[in-house]
Amino acid sequence: MTATGWLRLGAAPVNIALMKTAPPYSASPPAWVECVIDRFDQFLLDHAAAEKKAAGMALSMLSHYPDKARLVTAMSELAVEEMVHFREVVKLIQERDLQLTADEKDPYVNEVRSWIRQGSEEYLLDRLLTGAVIEARGAERFKLVADALCAGSLERFYQSLARSEARHYELFLDLAAEYFPAETVEARWQELLTAESALYASAAHQGRASLNWLDAAFGNPIPVHLRHPSRRPAKNRR
Q1: In the list 41, 176, 186, 233, which could disulfide-bond 14, CB 3.0-4.6 Å?
Q2: Is the pLDDT score of 133 beyond 90?
Q3: 3-class SS at 225?
């Protein structure tokens, strides 16, 4: 699935705030939540890697645009927040006698980022909006995880992460609105959300599990270091 081209909305006014209420277009399947709960150790390892990569992305953004003061401030704060999240997930990992693994490429993130176009203006807009797409999906998924956990500190942690991810995708939208006309931002935003929804429906991306996809639930081997009796948290049957 590609996400190229532009939509024309004419001169109609665009409400950026309204853009923050819709994503993502497609809901995550129940099988994803079941996979996470069944393979919670694996999920934590993937989650830690995702937080670390998110911090790196924020640092890359501010390094690429040192002349954009608000972006530099926002991305420096975002990088710090993501590393705090990383530290908290590492604590959970170590409490379960696990250890971090080597980073692996995330096919979902790589695919979404492949939609970033060349050209200085298009590149900046797409970096901001693909960041918003990824964070919006993260907000949805962390809420699903929180809803599936028993009441307690772990549930509260993922509830707080869901709120954080929602703030992050709103931040990316706000930055896009600061540097580009509102109608341009909305057109590309709707286009990317549509592309992301189609990506989720693609059979080619239903065979991997991580923060973004499924793999353990589809029969892929569980890593040796995870082949021990599950310490997964029980589902909350509210």
Answers
A1: 186
A2: yes
A3: helix
Q: Residue range 202-216: average pLDDT?
A: 46
List Cβ neighbours of 220 (8 Å cut-off, separation of 6 or more). 207, 208, 209
Residues paired with 34 in a beta bridge: none
C-alpha 169: how far from its chain's center? 9
Mean pLDDT of all residues in 50-71:
96
pLDDT at position 198, please? 86
| Count of Cβ atoms closer than 10 Å to residue 22 Cβ | 11
How is residue 20 annotated by DSSP? T
The answer to whether 129 and 176 have CB atoms below 8 angstroms apart is yes
Contact 65, 124 (CB under 8 A): yes
Q: 149: which strand partners?
A: 235
State yes or no: pLDDT of 223 exceeds 50: no
H-helix segments, 114-231: 120-148, 153-179, 182-201
* Residue labelled with tokens 């009441």: 151
Q: Which residues pair with 209 in a beta bridge?
A: 214
Burial class (CB in 10 A: 0-12, 13-18, 19+), 3: buried
Token duo for residue 207: 């065979």
Model confidence at 220, in pLDDT bands (50, 70, 90)? very low
In which element (H, E) is residue 70 found? helix 69-95
